[in-house]
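debug: dumping io for the single-chain case to check the tokenizer round-trip. Nothing else runs in this session.
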Amino acid sequence: MKALRTVLCVLAALLTTTAGVARADGAEEGAGCRPVHTIGVGQDLGGGNTTATVTHGGVLNGTTHAHFDITGGAPPAFTIAGTLVLTTKHGALTVDLAGTFNVATGEFTATGPITGATGKLAGSTGTLTLSGVENLTTGAFTERITGSLCRGGDEDD
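debug: decoded output
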């Protein structure tokens, strides 16, 4: 009997958790949040500066300009932080990023919140993650941009 009670408690907890996830997802959709899955192809300009062209991103197609500083770590993996501005025909998003850059492999990842938006993107929130690999000889890189974008502005594209 005690085992049955334990199983029922676990099942009830699981159902409560699942219902909470469903409500959170539904609330997110109602708020205009959408997943982000896009690609950036760019260039390390030196001095912590980068630029990239974003494609396959719908409303986020455009160009990025970013500046990163080394904030810690030790070779080959350093921690980095910086600000990225993504400019599109709909407006601009500013993202504050923190992550890592491996100077031996060129691999990087950085995540952060959207902290500003203009134009039709005004009021947008969310979180973006950039991850990819830089060619350490040429400075060229390809990155995956993932996360969520909750649009606060005009939804017409």
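debug: round-trip ok. The CA atoms of residues 49 and 152 lie 29 Å apart.
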